[in-house]
Amino acid sequence: MRWFASILITVLLTHFGYTALFADDFYLDRSVYKNTLRFEMDNDVLLNEDSNFSNGWSFQYHSACYASWEDTGAPKFVNWVGNHLPSFGDDESIVLYGQGVGQNMITPGDLTNPNPPPGDLPYAGTLTYTLNWQKFNQRSAQIFQATVGILGKESLAQQFQEIVHENLGLGESPQGWDSQRDTEPILNLAYAHFYSLMHIGSYTDGWAVQLSLAPAAYLGNLSTAVEMGLGIRFGWNMQEGFNAFPAPPGLGFYTNMLIPKPEVSSPHGVELVIGGKATGLIYSVVYDGSVITSDDRNIDYENFVVSGMIGLNYHYYRFFSIRLAFVQETDLLIEDSLPPTQPGDEKTRLDNSYSTFMIDFHF
Hints:
Layout: H1 2-15, E1 36-43, E2 52-62, H2 76-84, E3 94-107, E4 124-136, E5 140-151, H3 157-167, E6 184-201, E7 207-220, E8 224-236, E9 240-241, E10 258-259, E11 268-283, H4 285-288, E12 304-316, E13 320-329, E14 354-362
Antiparallel strand pairs: 1-2, 1-14, 2-3, 3-4, 4-5, 5-6, 6-7, 7-8, 8-11, 9-10, 11-12, 12-13, 13-14
């Protein structure tokens, strides 16, 4: 019966567009598309608002794909962790590591008030460094991510927003940063497992569709949460693997889990990405206040939110990729819990919707 089951699985995978790939078959010796540098900007500018999640940015580096952790040339610590994480060993998958520096900020709706009233969203900014381990093949992917950083004035969120709003004239001058969240170290761990539920078509010089599922968990003071994501990609000459979704620092995953293209394929690719996720937020120092300092200005919020995303990606695989996306989220803050505003003042926005611009440089 074992041989029959093996044949049946092979037939089913082939029917849905899969073939068995091993480390030697992942086009790791091609001359293009090696390492990746990424700049990501997440901002609510399309909504013409600057409250709740106001802005996030990150600079990321993703290594080239390798057959094993020993091949990466990374520091011994990175390779040791990759080899000892449960299920992250070498088993017909390819691996890479990523790292990045990023900043997030949230602000209340009324930027002219130097002292946001009790119950309103406080000013808060984080500056973080993230290191992760990524392992993937055609059918599944795993990522483990560690984030460290700082909450408070050392995050330089005040200076960044003042430059954008005052020097560049892109908004009102924020007056309340002197009341921002107290300084606190940030530590967060996160894990996600991606599954390709269905694939139809050809990834190489053809049209293809992929449906994927991605459960994830976060543990730490920046965000303790569980979530379930579902995404569909449709396009021409897409890369095999899993899409890079928007990732505000500490609130997502810096991923580049894409199987390299064969050299004979077209250098161009385009894809439409539609996704959604449900998130159960258990704790966040931004909204709940600190368990370390005396900053306990907690904000009432919903523990369960749903978000949807639509994005368009263009790839010129030899040099760069561009990703544009818009994320719409259900209300996180509870309206009745926010303090009343004076006539003409802007009330703090309830949701964390934003738009994203990503550009990758391959070298």
